[in-house]
């Protein structure tokens, strides 16, 4: 059973967002497949984003945040989970309004949204594979042949055509480097960038100067392809 997260302002009177949330939570249309996780803002229309997002990431699901919501709260939630899950910040005037937004949020999540640039996904998977295979330079065993990168164990063969472009971008920003052996290139992660690389894997965010070039190729894929990065941030 999936979980949909609903956050809303205080208020128990008829016609309040609380009453609309309860109507939807009691609607049998979702009972078989979705469970509601309901959260109220405080009197300042805020919640503790860190705690809320930690809960969400333990059992990922779509998020609907009902306005008014404090701008700082919304920003912090988006920073923490928007690259992984669909988030909607909505204004509602009825339970029917909320029902419609819930349906949209569920559809987005079921379709694998948010979508992100294909080369960004390949870059994350490539860096993860080099790390998991202990390719941090040193001796010859600390490097991976370019031809071996898109051969499973984290980088599917279907990404093979994008690997050279991604390698060039990561190379130009010193996250990786290569050496020549038998007239062919072998790649490794840059150990001097170890802290930065692990922060990238944990946050799932590349610096803008890297993300920009990785975003130029138009194809997009589901962010679910990056679920394998959970090992770097298990919460």
Any chance you could write out the topology, listing elements then pairs?
Elements: E1 2-8, H1 17-25, E2 34-40, H2 49-58, E3 63-66, H3 71-81, E4 87-90, H4 95-110, E5 115-117, H5 118-132, E6 144-145, H6 163-172, E7 176-181, E8 184-189, H7 194-203, H8 208-214, E9 220-222
Parallel strand pairs: 1-2, 1-3, 3-4
Antiparallel strand pairs: 5-9, 6-8, 7-8
Number of helices: 8
Major β-sheet profile: 4 strands, parallel
What's the CATH topology name of the largest domain? Arc Repressor Mutant, subunit A
Low-confidence stretches: none
What is this structure, in a nutshell?
This protein is an alpha/beta fold and 235 residues long.
Descriptive account of the structure:
This protein has two domains: 112 residues, 3-Layer(aba) Sandwich (Rossmann fold), CATH 3.40.50.2300; 117 residues, Orthogonal Bundle (Arc Repressor Mutant, subunit A), CATH 1.10.10.10. It starts with a strand and ends in a 13-residue tail after the last strand. The protein is an alpha/beta fold and 235 residues long. The radius of gyration is 21 Å and the shape is elongated. Strand 7 and strand 8 form a beta hairpin. The strands form three sheets. A four-stranded parallel β-sheet has the order 2-1-3-4, with helices on both faces. It has a three-stranded antiparallel β-sheet with strand order 6-8-7.
């Amino acid at each position: 059973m999936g979980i949909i997260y609903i956050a809303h302002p205080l208020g128990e009177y008829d016609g309040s967002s609380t009453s609309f949330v309860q109507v939807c939570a009691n609607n049998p249309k979702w009972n078989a497949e979705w469970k509601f996780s309901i959260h109220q803002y405080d009197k300042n229309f805020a919640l503790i984003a860190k705690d809320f997002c930690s809960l969400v990431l333990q059992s990922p699901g779509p998020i609907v945040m009902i306005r008014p919501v404090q701008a700082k709260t919304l920003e912090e939630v988006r920073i923490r989970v928007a690259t992984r899950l669909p988030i909607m910040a909505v204004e509602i005037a009825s339970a029917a309004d909320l029902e419609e937004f819930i349906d949209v949020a569920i559809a987005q999540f079921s379709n694998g949204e948010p979508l992100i640039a294909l080369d960004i996904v390949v870059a994350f998977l490539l860096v993860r594979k080099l790390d998991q295979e202990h390719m941090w330079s040193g001796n010859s065993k600390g490097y991976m042949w370019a031809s071996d990168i898109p051969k499973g164990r984290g980088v599917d063969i279907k990404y093979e055509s994008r690997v050279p472009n991604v390698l060039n971008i990561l190379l130009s920003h010193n996250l990786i480097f290569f050496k020549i052996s038998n007239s062919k290139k072998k790649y490794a992660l840059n150990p001097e960038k170890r802290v930065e690389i692990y922060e990238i894997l944990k946050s799932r965010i590349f610096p803008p100067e890297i993300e920009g070039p990785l975003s130029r190729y138009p194809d997009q894929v589901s962010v679910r392809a990056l679920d394998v990065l959970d090992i770097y941030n298990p919460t």
